[in-house]
Amino acid sequence: MEVVADNKVLAFVSDFKRPEDGSKVRQQALDALNGMDFPTTRVEEWKYTRVAKYVKRKYKQVQTTANVDQFKIADLDAHQLVFVNGFYDEKASTILEDDTVSIHKIDELDEGYYTDLMEDTEENVFSLINKGYQTGGVFIQIKKNKKANHPIHILHVLEGEEVMANARHFIHAEMGSQAEIVTSFASNNASNGFTNVVLEGHVETNASIRINKLQTEAKDVLNISNEMFIQDESSNFLINTVTTGGQLTRNGLNVIVEGENCHTEMNGAYLGTEKQHIDNHTIIDQLYSNCTSSESYKGVMDDKSVGVFNGKVIVRQDAQKIEAYQSNKNILLSKGASVNSKPELEIYADDVRCSHGSTIGELDEEAIYYLRSRGISKKSAQQLLIAAFIGDILDKIQNEAVRAHVDQLFLEDFGWRF
Amino acid sequence: MSNTYTEEDLAKNLEEQEYKYGFTSDFKSDKAPNGLNEDIIRFISAKKEEPEWLLEKRLQAYYAWKEMTEPEWAHVNYEKPDFQAISYYSAPQQTKKYESWEDVDPEMKETMKKLGISLEEQKRLTGTAVDFVVDSVSVGTSFKKKLAEMGIIFCSFSEAVENHPELVKKYMGTVVPHTDNFYAALNSAVFTDGSFCYIPKGVKCPMELSTYFRINEGGTGQFERTLVVADEGSYVSYLEGCTAPMRDENQLHAAVVELIALDDAEIKYSTVQNWYPGNKEGKGGVFNFVTKRGICEKNAKISWTQVETGSAVTWKYPSCILKGDNSIGEFYSVAVTNNFQQADTGTKMVHLGKNTSSTIISKGISAGQSQNAYRGLVQIHPGAENARNRSECDSLLLSDRSGAHTFPYIECKNNTAKIEHEATTSKIGEDQIFYCQQRGIDEEKAIGLIVNGYCKEVLNHMPMEFAVEAQKLLEISLENSVG
């Protein structure tokens, strides 16, 4: 490929091996990348998140192995799919005997299906780079009217210096099926890595998908995740995102509701320390009537960390009787910490009940005083209050093993007990 | 402009100016040819006999404007005006709009009657009357005398430039610099007139100042400029606009309003905007692109109250820069859109000083096929210890073809700040309407009643007479919008 010096995107990908599998999807993505640029803070969607520093780097796509056992979730009897630097690690993975799901490589996904379904979702420069240069991923089918016997755990690990992981997954929940997915992101002996992962999915009529997403990478990692889901009639979609790692984390979560009587739920807890930057962008696009959605994100920012929340609920014309709730609450623990919150409602139908709320503040001094007057140390009092604040979100994680894992994580990282 | 100034003087003046500035265009009429260039700006400045420093300011603004592009981020769709097809100056003419009261559009009369405007006032507003002007002048003069006694300056912007150049020079462009945005730059380059108000130290202005009562009115034009300066410890309540429907042939309005509240001062600025919103098919109507901003020094307070019912496209964000410690910013707004109107309006509260607090109450009502957006910014800078903000943005949808949008931006860089924002969007409950109908109140009246209750929180902040008219205005704006 000819590298045009002034095109940053082409320069960025110039060292990546161009896969020659003749995939039309890839080709389309590569074509679309031509003439595109990385977003600057002048682009509305990236107003508060600066990626310029990172995209100047020359990342490598390196296939290797890593010690992944430490990142497994204890007592989670799940299909384990391990990706090291975006490459599938077959040895480290475990696929259980299960007739309710079928797990394939992403390349086995029918191209026609792939493009038809996803043409509505908006791709950005990062998801296109992922599409053009993906090095692996899984295509998971949850069989019709079946409840998956085991949860599916997709584990992403970064290993090495300045590596970039481009994994791409697709979840197809067939009519009436149910499944629980865990995606987790970690890094091991890695420095300045870049995780650029895309998770797409189609939740068919009456199907239900629950996702728990855990981001615990080292604090020098750039993590850009794009999740795009389409919901059919009477389906359920839930995602809980817990973010404690990464130097810059950007979660782009996009759900298009294409049927009546759907329920969509998004919850997030993000905890920033040092100079972390955590950005959660969500869009719920309601196209049909009688749907409900609920969104709740809570952040605790310490040191010089920055939290960003941009939630958007779009209710299209004729999508009547929609109930949408959106909330973003933040606690700032130190002087240098900051939060930018932008909860948006875009409503074109009249018979709706939509609301959003956003708060930013510090810990309630009176509450701390109350606890201290009862002999609890200041530190413990703060921990208690933060735990109560974040606990709301963690309670949405229904899977006990995952919850225990998260609790352990918080205990180790912050000394908090829930 | 003095009354003795004649055409001949003007022509002579222009010739001299031509020589002075070396512009060669030959303008004979009172109306500038269409388009905007340096010569036009020199022409406007010359016509208004402005001092050189002001011309310099205009030219600076013009050069800045030339480099700018029209903002596109607002949630509105419209055909952009051709800036070279507008005439930027036409001398205020005192011609009667109507020959007699009988010629006035009956629909307009009806509306004014509903607003409860007195016949005299109605005649004055439509530009018919001659007989009672005497009366109005006398009222105005007595006001003026009283204000002058207290040292309050309240006059047109041109007069202020002529009589109080030091004040204008000191404060103009300090809150809204000419480089601020596309329309502010345009205004700074071509503004024709506006109002100027100065309240001296420690003076509490005894009456509501209003452009509505001002005698030297005479067509403020489409590029209005308002500057209100409240010196230390003073108070003023300023009213802008009026509830009567304004038929205006100017499509583009780009005004700039600057408020300066020095230490311990308070400015209350109320607006009722009812420009022509276009017809029921969405044809015509005014584009209202306004830049309004105030700066608060120590312990100062600025309060914006607005009722917006007019204009085809509105783009307006009255803002407060809370620079001084303990300063307060308030924004109370009702924005109503009907038919094909589009509004993107809200506020900006920039907290710089310690213990600053701001309150935002915004009520949007969308009917017909209109789009109504709230866009607000609350920004807490690192030095703004103990800053406090509360925002409440409610939207009411009256038809299934209308849209209501909320785009709040909350940026907090200080951990001692407390910020709360909430917004809701819904329609009027059927049970509420049913309740009213049960008691013999028809649907339209019921909606009026509910809407007024919904807006009460904002209307309560308006001066009394204004509030009464604004309430009726809401009812009229929403007529036939039941859907």
TrEMBL record, chain A:
Pfam families: SUFBD_core, SufBD_N
GO biological process, one term: iron-sulfur cluster assembly
SUF system FeS cluster assembly SufBD core domain residues: 157-389
Superkingdom of this protein's organism: Bacteria
Residue stretches making up the SUF system FeS cluster assembly SufBD N-terminal domain: 24-154
Family matches, as SUPFAM superfamilies: Stabilizer of iron transporter SufD
Family: Belongs to the iron-sulfur cluster assembly SufBD family.
NCBIfam families on file: sufD
Name of this chain's protein: Fe-S cluster assembly protein SufD
Organism of provenance: Brumimicrobium salinarum
Taxonomic classification: Bacteria, Pseudomonadati, Bacteroidota, Flavobacteriia, Flavobacteriales
From TrEMBL, chain B:
Any single biological process term in GO: iron-sulfur cluster assembly
Location of the SUF system FeS cluster assembly SufBD core domain: 213-453
Family statement drawn from the similarity comment of this UniProt entry: Belongs to the iron-sulfur cluster assembly SufBD family.
Protein name: Fe-S cluster assembly protein SufB
InterPro entries, alphabetized: Fe-S_cluster_assembly_SufBD (IPR055346), SUF_FeS_clus_asmbl_SufB (IPR010231), SUF_FeS_clus_asmbl_SufBD_core (IPR000825), SUF_FeS_clus_asmbl_SufBD_sf (IPR037284), SufBD_N (IPR045595)
Organism annotation: Brumimicrobium salinarum
The SUF system FeS cluster assembly SufBD N-terminal domain, residue ranges: 130-205
Highest taxon in the source lineage: Bacteria
Pfam families for the chain: SUFBD_core, SufBD_N
